[in-house]
C-alpha cells in the first residue's frame, strides 16, 4: 500500500483576498499560540489581551503612546521593506537607527540654543537620515564591490553601533554626554528648537513625517522608472544586466535608501519623545521589530503603516501587563510568533498544496509523489 503525499505547486498570481487574509490569519494564529502559552502558565489569556487592548487603545493617552511607539517602526519597517524587495538582506536597521540618532543629536547640539526651529528641525531630521545612510554604506560598499555577505556585516554593525553609543555617553566626555549630570551619565538634552512640537499629549508631528516618508518611498518604488529598475534587479539580476540596468548602482542606492529610512527613525525618536542621545531609551530593538513589520506587511510600503501601529500597540501594552502579574516578555513572544506565522503564510501565498491524482497502477513507482 502506497502513501499518497501532497504536491507543492506554484500558485501563480494570488488573489487580493488571499494576500489580505494571510497577514490577518498570522496575527490571529500568533495570538492563539500566545493564549496556549498563557494558559499553561496559569493566566487567563482573555484577561491579558483585554489589558493589552485597554493599554494601547482604551484611552486618549494610551492611543497617543501607541502612535509614539509606531512612529519609528513605520520607518524601520520601510527600511526593511525597501531592501528586501530587491533581495538585499539589510539586517542592520537597528545600527542604522542608532547612528541616525547619533547624527541627529550631534547636529542639534552643534547648532545650539540660538538656532531657529525652521533651521534646527529639518537639520536634525536630515542628519538622522545621513547617519543611517553612512552606516549602511559600511556594509553596502563591500557587498557591491567585494561580494561580501550583507547579512553578516549588517548584523555585526548593529552591535558596533550600540557599543559606540554607549561609549559616547558612558565611556567618554563627548559632546553628546550631559556635563551637568555627575551621578549617572546621561545624554545631553537637545535644544528646544530642535524638538518636534507636541500636539496630542506627548505625540509630536514626527508621526506625520514618518507617514509622509512611507508614502514617498512607496511612490518612488512603485511609480517611477528608478523603482521599476529596482524591481527588475530584484526579480532577476541577469535580466536587468541584459536590459542595460546598472545592477551594482541599484543595489548600492537601495542599500543607502534603506539605511537612510532607519536613520530618519532615529532622528525623529531623538528629536521627539527621547530628547537626547540616551542609550537606555534607544536600545529597544526597533530596528529588529521593523523586520517583523515589513514581513507582516508583505513588503508593501503602505501596509507598513497600519502594521507598525499594531506593533506599536504591542510595545505600548507591555508595561501594563506587570500590573496583572504577566511578564513583559509576553510581548516579545507574540512578536516572534507573528513573524513565524507571517513567513509561513508567505509560503501559502506563493504555493498551493494538492493531492496527486489516483493512479490505477499497482506499481508504487508510478504513483505521483511530491
Briefly characterize the structure.
With 370 residues, this protein is mostly helical. It has 14 helices and four strands.
The value of Rg in angstroms is 23 Å
End-to-end separation in angstroms reads 17 Å
What is the overall number of helices? 14
Oligomer: single chain
The total count of strands amounts to 4
> Approximately how much helix is present in the residues?
55-70%
Unreliable segments (pLDDT under 50, ≥5 consecutive)? 364-370
What fraction strand? under 5%
Structural class by helix and strand composition:
mainly alpha
Average residue pLDDT: 87
| Helix-strand string | EHHHHHHEEHHHHHHHHE
- Overall spatial form: globular
Major sheet size, sense and barrel closure: 2 strands, antiparallel
Provide structural commentary.
This protein has 370 residues and is mostly helical. It has a domain of 228 residues. It has 14 helices and 4 strands. The strands form 2 sheets. Strands 1-4 form a two-stranded antiparallel sheet. Helix 3 packs antiparallel against helix 10. The radius of gyration is 23 Å and the shape is globular. The C terminus is likely disordered.
Protein topology:
Elements: E1 7-10, H1 16-40, H2 45-57, H3 60-85, H4 93-111, H5 117-145, H6 150-170, E2 198-200, E3 203-204, H7 206-223, H8 225-235, H9 237-242, H10 247-274, H11 279-282, H12 286-296, H13 304-317, H14 329-350, E4 351-354
Antiparallel strand pairs: 1-4, 2-3
Helix pairs in contact: 1-14, 2-3, 2-13, 3-7, 3-10, 3-12, 3-13, 4-5, 4-6, 4-10, 4-12, 5-6, 5-10, 7-8, 12-13, 12-14, 13-14
Amino acid at each position: 500500500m502506497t502513501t499518497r503525499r501532497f504536491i507543492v505547486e506554484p500558485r501563480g498570481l494570488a488573489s487580493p483576498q488571499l494576500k489580505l487574509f494571510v497577514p490577518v490569519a498570522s496575527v490571529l494564529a500568533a495570538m492563539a499560540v500566545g493564549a496556549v502559552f498563557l494558559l499553561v502558565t496559569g493566566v487567563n489569556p482573555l484577561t491579558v489581551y483585554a489589558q493589552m487592548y485597554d493599554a494601547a487603545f482604551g484611552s486618549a493617552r494610551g492611543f497617543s503612546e501607541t502612535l509614539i511607539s509606531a512612529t519609528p517602526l513605520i520607518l524601520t519597517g520601510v527600511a526593511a521593506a525597501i531592501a528586501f524587495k530587491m533581495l538585499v538582506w539589510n539586517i542592520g536597521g537597528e545600527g542604522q537607527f542608532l547612528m541616525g540618532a547619533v547624527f541627529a543629536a550631534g547636529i542639534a547640539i552643534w547648532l545650539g540654543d540660538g538656532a531657529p526651529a525652521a533651521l534646527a528641525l529639518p537639520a536634525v531630521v536630515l542628519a538622522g537620515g545621513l547617519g543611517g545612510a553612512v552606516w549602511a554604506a559600511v556594509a553596502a560598499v563591500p557587498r557591491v564591490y567585494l561580494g561580501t555577505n550583507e547579512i553578516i556585516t549588517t548584523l555585526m554593525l548593529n552591535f558596533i553601533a550600540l557599543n559606540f553609543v554607549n561609549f559616547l555617553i558612558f565611556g567618554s566626555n563627548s559632546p553628546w554626554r550631559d556635563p551637568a549630570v555627575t551621578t549617572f551619565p546621561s545624554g545631553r538634552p537637545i535644544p528646544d528648537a530642535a524638538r518636534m512640537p507636541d500636539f496630542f499629549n506627548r505625540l509630536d508631528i514626527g508621526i506625520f513625517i514618518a507617514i509622509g516618508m512611507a508614502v514617498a518611498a512607496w511612490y518612488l518604488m512603485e511609480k517611477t522608472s528608478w523603482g521599476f529598475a529596482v524591481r527588475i534587479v530584484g526579480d532577476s539580476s541577469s535580466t536587468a544586466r541584459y536590459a542595460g540596468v546598472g545592477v551594482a548602482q541599484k543595489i548600492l542606492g537601495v542599500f543607502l535608501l534603506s539605511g537612510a529610512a532607519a536613520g530618519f527613525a532615529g532622528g525623529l525618536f531623538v528629536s521627539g519623545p527621547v530628547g537626547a542621545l540616551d542609550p537606555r531609551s534607544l536600545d529597544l530593538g526597533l530596528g529588529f521589530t521593523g523586520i517583523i513589520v515589513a514581513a507582516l506587511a508583505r513588503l508593501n510600503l503602505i501596509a507598513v503603516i497600519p502594521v507598525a501601529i499594531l506593533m506599536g500597540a504591542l510595545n505600548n501594552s507591555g508595561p501594563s501587563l506587570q500590573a496583572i502579574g504577566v511578564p513583559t516578555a509576553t510581548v516579545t513572544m507574540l512578536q516572534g510568533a507573528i513573524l513565524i506565522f507571517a513567513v509561513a503564510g508567505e509560503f501559502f501565498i506563493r504555493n498551493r498544496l494538492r493531492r496527486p491524482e489516483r493512479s490505477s497502477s499497482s506499481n508504487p513507482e508510478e504513483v505521483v509523489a511530491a
